[in-house]
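Why this split exists: single-chain examples teach little about how molecules sit against one another. For that reason, every record in the complexes split bundles all components of an assembly together and asks for one structure covering all of them. Below is a record exactly as it appears in the raw files.
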Amino acid sequence: MASRTAAEKWLGALTNLPTASGREHQVVAWVENWVKRRPDLRLIEDSGGNLLITRKGKKRRDPVLAVAHMDHPAFVVTEVSGQAATFQFRGGVREEYFSNARVDFVTGPAKGGRVASFDPRGRIGVIEVKGTGPEPGDIARWHVATSRPRAGRLRAPACDDLAGCAAALAALDRARERADLAHFGVLLTRAEEMGFIGAIHAAVTGSIPADARLLSIETSRASAEAPLGGGPVIRVGDAVTVFDQELTNRISRAVAGTGLRHQRKLMVGGACEATAFGVYGYVATGLCLPLGNYHNMGNLDEVEAGTGVARPMLEEVSLDDFHGLVDLLLVAADAVDDEGNLRERLDTAYSDGRRLLG
Ligand SMILES: [Zn+2]
């Protein structure tokens, strides 16, 4: 069973791996290795490279899948000519952060360089490389000053959404101990940062069972209303849409009965895969971790206000929020089939109280 220590080890390992949309292979290899050590689990890679991890054996209930994405905003080298490496930046980061920014190559032979130009329309630009050059396909990320996190926090290059992957796997590891959670599994997707491409692929090609209930895990920009350390969030919607009403309500109701610290919020700092799954006809809702330095944008509030300097930084999550999310996933996996729904409760209240209306 996953102890907190083991879960934190997986969290630390995954959030430090090099990854980018379309270049998730190191995360895939890590997950394949993790699953290999658990013979009661089955891993299926779909035709788009998404990973579906389920428990072997008979299931008595329709599947519940915790979903997280394996990519993170990063530079991907597309062409190299001498010391100039052309890149595509795969993910959403404000233009200000690119200006003369230092980057570190985290795959391939090259070490580091500096952004010489950036065109925000195509999200393409050129890195002036120092020393040995990279190869097409290599990944670079922001050069950041490392700093010791506050107690109870994790700082890492890619909490979004590798912390989600770690939480999903930690929950699955705990579910393995329980026969009543045989229906719980994990779906890890690709290329979310470029517009949910992996999630859409999984939906349109049917690699997700039609009767699955999806718990889409994200890290989402923390705010005064949903701060770091405030607990994992039951996300009722994102910047684009609201999620499945019945599924969201059942989870909220079940969690309220457990005393588990959590928040119930609309997180509008971005969109998440639950939106895509809903559009393609799946029952889906969102769970998330408040995220500091969203997409590695340090000082973001000030930069948006035009009062601060853009400084790339490590992302940050609260460890208590992370462990709370693992607990929340297990409560949710169980609660989706609870008896009774909100309509039935309102019907009862109405029949008990209608005499008040005369
Ligand atoms: Zn993101």
